[in-house]
Task: structure prediction
Amino acid sequence: MFVNYNNMEEKKSIVLSLGGSLIVPEVVDLEFIRQFTNLILKWTEKNRRFFIIAGGGRTARNYQTAAKELGVSDKNDLDQIGIYTTFANAGLLRSVFGKNAHSAIITNYSRKIETTSKVIIGAGWKPGCSTDVDAIYAAKLVGAKRVINLSNIDCLYDKDPRAYSDAKPIQKLSFSELLEITGEIWNPGANTPFDPIASRLAQNDKVEVVIANGKNLNNLENILSNQPFTGTVVCPR
Result:
């Protein structure tokens, strides 16, 4: 299944929501980070700027699970634990990009960012949502109308493909349709294709979201090149 973007106007500022489980699936994925960094730097030479929001992924969920077993039940506390793990992932990415990245990790998306760097790295901000929400805020900061959400799934399906062999991939849908799949309530550590809070925010701000598998960097290259790619497009309408 491919999505074609041949008619889309190229944008200089690109927002990527990078799932934490791509950075640390079990242990830190050194080869993925090397290849991902090289790809981004190649595109910065084409006058593209990137705002990359690092998620917490499995690491966050492991800490949150441990906290629950230790008696923590407050949702804000559990969210804050997840936010702290995004700091570690973002810090790793920022250090790997080195002088090519803005010197500070962004953790407050209400402030204008003054930088000439081609790469900006962000982490989690507030409890009550995931870094998907931060990616939508980041898009607003840089004037982007599309967020590329990279996780470990190829696309959305009309039902769970692990449980149903007849599950069909979804090429395009609205945020209202996505919320019917994910539900509308955010729970700390929820493993959903896109945060329901972020879906409503993107709908209101008219930001399009592309959901794709970040492990497939050739596919990411196609997305950045406005070529046909494998994934799902969620449209505000």
Notes: Residues 1-10 have pLDDT under 50 and may be disordered.
